[in-house]
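## retry 2 of 3
previous attempt timed out at serialization; input unchanged, resubmitting
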Amino acid sequence: MNKTKARITLIAFAAILAVLIYTVFVGWGKTGSGAAKNIKLGLDLEGGVSITYQTVDDNPSAEDMSDTVYKLQQRVDGYSTEASVYQEGGNRINIEIPGVSNADEILEDLGKPGSLEFQLDDGTVILDGSHVVSAEAASQKNNMNNTEYVVQLEFDKDGTKAFSDATSAHVGDNIAIVYDGETVSAPRVNEAITDGKCVITGNFTIESAQELASYIRIGSLSLELEEIRSNVVGAQLGQKALSSSLVGGLIGLAIVVLIMIFAYKIPGLIAGFALIMYAALDLAALNAFDMTLTLPGIAGVILSIGMAVDANVIIYARIREEIESGKTVRSSIDIGFKKALSAIIDGNVTTLIACFVLNLMATGSVKGFAQTLALGVALSMFTALVISRLLVNACYALGLQDAKYFGKAIKFNLLHIVEKRKLFFTIAIICMLSGPVFCAINGARGAGALNLSMEFRGGTSTDVTFTDSFTIEEIDEKIKPVIQDVIGSAEIQAQKVSGGNEIIFKTRQLSVDERQALTDALNEAYPIETYTDNAGKEALSINFETISSTISSEMRRDAVIAVIIAVICMLIYIWFRFSDVRFASAAVMALIHDVLLVFASYAIVRISVGNTFIAAMLTIVGYSINATIVIFDRVRENLRERRNFETLEELVDKSITSTMTRSIYTSLTTFVTIAALYIVGVPSIKEFALPLMVGILAGAFSSVCLTGPLWYVLRKAKDKRDMAAAKAQADAAAATKITASKKKKNKKAAK
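## retry succeeded, writing output
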C-alpha cells in the first residue's frame, strides 16, 4: 500500500466511523432510522403488552395447561424472542410481549385461541389442530413462473398418518379447515399427501395467507382460550437501570482501549478504533435486524466488546513475536495476521456453531441470546481481520515502520505448567466439588440447593390500584421496601399498567397470611383504591394470583438439549480441525471445570437463578472454548515444527508460555468490562456480572493450567509409541546405510 492509498484508507474509515456514530446517536430521516434509541427493548427496559387468557374448560389438566403454555411460547417468539408465557392460577395463561404498545393489534394478529379441526365434506373429523407442528405463509413459483402466496403445513407423526389416509382416499374432494365452528378454508386434495407436509394454494395475498396460517397455528393449542384482559405495561426497571448499564459499558470500553494502547502502542490505538467501530456496527445491526434487547442482553453486548479484543490481541501478539525473532516490521505484520488467522477462525466458528444450534432448537431468551452473540461474533471477526489489517498497513505505509511503535513484548521464562499438573488438577477438582457441596449444605439448612428465582419456581402476582400515581423510580424507592419488609425477600418485579394507577408486583409464593399482611401494609403506607363488590360491600382494589415459572419445563428441556447438541457440534469441529480427538476431550474437561465453577458461585453467594443464569452459562461456554482453542492452535503449530530432541512436555510448556501475553490481556480486558458493569450497574445486572467475572477467572485458569496438561496426559502414551517407532525407523535407516556402505567397501576391496 502506497502513501496515497494509505491516506485514502484512513480518511475513508474516519468518515465511515463518523457516519456510524451519527447513525447510532441521531439516526436518519424523521423517524431516526438506525439510531440506537430505536432498538427494540425488552419488557424489563421498555415495557410492552400483557395479555391474560382463560381456558374455556374450567378444570383443565396440568398436562394440557403445560402443553398450551409451551406452544403459545413458540407462537409469540415471532414477536420477540424475549416474550414470556406463564400460567396464572389454575386455568389462566399470561403472555407478555416487549417492545409493543398496541394490545388490540397484538390480539388481532395473535388471533383468538379456539378449536381447529380438519373435516371431510360430510363433517367427518380427520384430525384436530393439536397435530399441527407448524403453519407458515410462504411464496413459490406457479406453473406460469409467477409468484404466488401459499400456506405451508406440517403435521406430527399421528397427524401425518391420519392426513395420509384421508388424502389417499379422497383425491379430488375438499378438506375443510374449521376454526371455532366456521370454515376458514376448504382446499381440494390434488394428490395423496404421505410425508406430513402440505401446501395450501389459492388466490392468496400475503395478508390472507398469513391470516390463515395464524388461524391454524393458534388453533393447534391443546386448550381453547378466551381473553379476559389485556394491558399495556411499563418497564420493570427504571431508566436508571438502562443509563447505568450504558455508563458501565462506556467506562469498560474506555479502559480496554487504554490497556490496548499501553500494551501495543500504535496497534493498540488501531484496536481501539476498531472496537469503537465494532460497537457502533453492533448497535446499528441490532436495530437493522429488529432484535429485542433486554438488560442481560446489554450486558451480553458489553461482554462481546471485551471478547472482541481477543482477536486483536492474538494478531498483535503474533506480530510482536515475529519482530522479536528478528524479522522486519513489514514481514512481521504479514506473518502475524497469517498465523493468527487459524486461531481466530477456529475460535469464532465454534461459537457460531453453538449460536446456530441454539437459535434453531431453543426458545425464549436462549434464542435471543444466540442471535445477539452470533451478530457480535461475526462483526468482531470483520473488524479484526479486515478493518484492523487495513489500518495497520495504512499506518505502516505512512511511515510508522519502527519496531518501537509496536510495543515491547513481555518476556516469560519457560513456564513448567505440565510438571505442576497434579497440583493444578487438585485445585480444579476441589473448586469443581465446591458447588455440589454448598448445594448440599444449603439444602440441609432448608434454604434450597440454589436460590431459584420466580422465572424457575413461579410465585405470586399482586395486582394493586393505588389512589396515587407512581413512577418506576418511586416504586423502587417507596413501595418495594414496604413489600420487602413483609415478605423478607428483595426479589420483587414491578410493572406499571399504562393509563392509570394500577401496578403489578411479582414476588415469591405468598401464603394467605402473608397476602393479608401485605394488603394491610400497602394500604397503610400508600392508600389503595376501593370498589363495590358483587355483595355491595366496599373492597380494596388488590388481587393475588399464583403464577407458574416463566421458564417452563419444556423450555428448560429444549435449552438443555440445545446446549448439549451445540457443545457436541463444537467439539466435533475441534476434532476435525485439529485431527486429534484428544484436543476435543481436553476441551470438554476444561469446559466442565469452568461451568461448574460458575455454578458454584451461584450456590455459594446465593445469586438468584433466573433467565440470566442460562445466559451466563452460555457465555462462559463460548468464552471457555475460545480461550482453549488459542492454546491448542499454538500446540498444533509447534507439533508441525517439532524438533527431534524436544519432549512433549517441553512442547506443551512452550506453547502455553508463548500465548501467556494473549491470556493475560484478553482475560484482563474482558474482566474489566464486566467489572465496570458490576460497579455501576443495578442489582439485576450485578447478579449477571458477578458469575461472569468468576467464569472469566475460571477460563483464564483452565486455559493456562488445565487444557495443555490434560492434552499432554491423553497424548503422552501415543507420543512415546510414535517416538519409539520414529527411533526404530531411524535406527533401521542408519543400519541400512551402514550395510550399504559396507557392501560398497567390500565391492571395492574385491576389485
